[in-house]
Amino acid sequence: MTSFRPTKEQLAAAHGTTIRDVIAPGLRVLFCGINPGLYSGATGYHFARPGNRFWPALHASGFTPRRFDPSEQDELLAHGLGITNLVARATARADELTDAELREGGEILVTKLDRYRPRCLAVVGVTAYRTAFGRPKAQVGEQSGSIGETAVWVLPNPSGLNAHWTPATLAQEFARLREKFYSE
Asked: Taking 70 as the threshold, does the pLDDT of residue 183 lie above it?
């Protein structure tokens, strides 16, 4: 487990940095964040900010046998899971991204899906998904159609800023995805 807590200076220096994907061929589910926050940029780990509810939701929904620390992100691969982002650059807030960046990120993501062929893509953030893929009416849940052979599911953003999704309702939505694409 990591105890590294970036300083204000390290967080500021993380603006615009990138972190590597946790990805491999044939995953059951590839989770796709919007983009790394500054905390993730500083640590090099996805969903790293304390208070982000991704890791608790992943465990509470049954995807992982215990709650992983962000520093253990590579262990997801052994469970058929991976993580990438729509936009690679770290920002303080997702609203710093332009629509053009999100659309370009969607195109890059399609290339990754073609290369790695996960069973399901789970985008965490409905607004970003709508913009990236030109689906303005998309809702949380399973999406109609697929990208190549990859099914698509949209999950709520697990950021603490998305407070109308409680830890329990986030876990329920993650569990709906797991039941459909992971446990079969």
From this structure: no
158 confidence band (pLDDT: 50, 70, 90): confident
Instruction: Identify the sign of the CA torsion 139, 145, 147, 152.
Output: positive
CA distance 83 to 79: 12
Domain architecture of the chain: domains with CATH: 8-181 (3.40.470.10)
Distance, in Å, from the CA atom of 56 to the CA atom of 179, rounded to the nearest integer, reads 17
111, 147 contact by CB (below 8 A):
no
Name the residue among 89, 43, 95, 47 with its Cα closest to residue 68: 47
Q: Which among 121, 116, 129, 184 is positioned nearest to 156, based on CA atoms?
A: 129
- The SS3 assignment for 91 reads strand
Cα 165 to Cα 6, 17, 52, 157, 171: the distances in Å are 27, 28, 12, 8, 9
Closest C-alpha among 90, 93, 66 to residue 78? 66
